[in-house]
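#help-structures
NK: newbie question, is this the right format to request a structure? protein is Rad51-like C-terminal domain-containing protein
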Amino acid sequence: MEVVDQTTSSLRHQLNQIWKEFRDVNKDSQRRTEDDDSHEIDNNIQDRDKLEVNYALISRNPQSILSLDPEQLSSMLHVTPEQVYNLRQRISNTILASKSKNSHQFQFEADSSLSNLCQKRREVENISRNITTGSNAFDKLISSTSSSMSSRKRSRRQEETENQQGNMERDSGIAFGKIVQCSGPSSSGKTQLALSLAVNTIVSSKRSPWVYYICSGGGNVCQPLSRRIRQIIAMLNQQGKIDSREVFLDNIYFDHVDNGHDLLARLKSLEHELMKDNDSEDLLLVIDSMSGCFGNFVYSDGDGGVGSAIFSECKLLLRRISRVGDVNSSKQVAVLVTNGMVSSSDSPTGRKPALGELLRIGDVHIELQPWKDVNVVSENTNGHKSIERVVVRGIKAIKLDENNKSEGLDEIKFGIGVQGIMDI
């Protein structure tokens, strides 16, 4: 705890120093300007007092600079947009540098077991534009073209547009350029789903994608996630479903964030890297979970609305990141966001997605619910084929509409086994 406190204190000192340098330079410049226009000083007293208040507010929390609109910040501080950009960049880089030792990159050894894990599953010319999870039923449910609008009236033009999208998106699963939000209570399979998706992203694509997995929570949560990834891959290899010829699992990166400030800094850095035209790798971005980053932060009192502002900025960044393919056609990004559940007297199930109306960012919103244990048949291919019956954890998945309602929409069930997500 003492080490963490020292790290936090050091970061706070660095940010305050950056802000102090910026404030002193710009206030000196503004003072010289006022001296040149001394006859207007009396008319500017009110503006100057307001400026002092703005500087004082930001001095309490320099990290809030990242959550404010750049144009608004430029107006508040009476500086140029370029100065605002440089300041935000310094703040973001400082936060990332201070947290770098909490970031983990797991590169898997090319030994006899793991070196045979990563060949892409398909060698055909027709490549799926989507990322699969391991369950065909769940892939169809999360497809952006599935029949979630079947109970509502649609115009002829809407139907024609959906038919065109259906032709383009040949397979089901998470489409690049989309955000999928999965909400559920504890033990509903949110993290297991995210890990299965990470594995399938690597082994089923020909475009050498990479996975950036951002997790929240106390302690060293990245290590158990890494072990679970290895377990899934080992089982898939044992079943003969994957091998390694081109792709290696050093393309999966785990990162840990403590709060919304850390998440915002990482998303800004990621957006900056994606806009560089330096490679053509696709990306799956996983945030597990948003409620872990913002659960207390958004609703805290006395922060002057900074928590809500940072949350809103993160949502905008996620939308821009998911649509990076519209700007840089050589790259495609898919986003999976998990979210917890909280009690609600208004919901038929007694629960509702955490963060409520604030977290409306997904193109597809799925609610996961624990179901029951299910017996399934498992096939192993390790020199010879064998069949055994195993018990997996059953999960119910429901597609929600834009109002987080499930009436009349699709519902499926899938299982979570040693090899990850599977049909039951």
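mod (FA): yep, format's fine, and the tokens are attached above. The mean pLDDT is 73.
NK: thank you!
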